[in-house]
Amino acid sequence: MDTEAAQHPERDRSAVPGNRDGERSRSACLAGQEEQADEALSGQTEQGDEALSGHTVRTPWRRPVFLAFACLTFLLLFSGFVLQPFLIPSTSMQPTLQVGDRVLVNKLAYRFGAVPQRGDVVVFDGTGSFVREEPAVNPVTGALRWAGAALGIAEPAETDFVKRVVGVGGDRVVCCDKRGRIQVNGQGVDEPYLYPGDSASRVPFDIVVPDGKLWMMGDHRSRSSDSRDHLGSPGGGMVPVDRVIGRTDWLGWPVGRWGSLERSDAFTHVRAPAAGSHG
Hints:
Elements: H1 2-11, H2 20-81, E1 83-87, E2 102-106, E3 121-125, H3 139-150, E4 160-167, E5 172-175, E6 182-184, E7 187-189, E8 205-208, E9 213-217, E10 239-240, E11 244-253, E12 259-260
């Protein structure tokens, strides 16, 4: 019994108070636990840093894409309702407008009660007047072309035209007087914007513009397919006022020709149509 009693403390030294070897064991255990806790915390911190680092890597491309999308949306909305670039595709408006020019079409010009005036250069939808019906197009191709045209980097739709207003509702427009000029309401009109060497028109006509319609002509008369070419078509080549998209107020490209497009005063002295002359 004495032998067992003597050996018992040695089998369980850590249980004896004041045993220094036991204290070292417990200290080593606590130190090991602290090290494990530190390692676990360090691992979590590294994982968090990696996650943050991964998030940081993704952010640089997300922001530019979002900004680009927002800018594109703004430009399309601005172009759709306020000011649209329009690429000039043909020679029909020379010398006023050249092929490749980008004009800025003011879509607010006729939104608040104003109406197109003689001499205005306007962009309009010729469906039903210059074009019998809108051509069928692939929806995706049509959307891309519309977006490109709205930004002024692609040719406009086949139904969009740019011409000069020569006659408004009630006007009688005749070609030509003894001096070879267009007559509007009996008044001969000198047109300084005509292409050099062109006559006012090689096609004689005598028409009365109905209310709510416009008689359109290009400045390069020998190269322009305009109201004269549709005299025998339904509507007689007249363009409805509500088909006008806007007025070309500025020239945005090329850089050397930046500036506003001056409105012609060629029709300043044309009197109003006589009462009862409306078609």
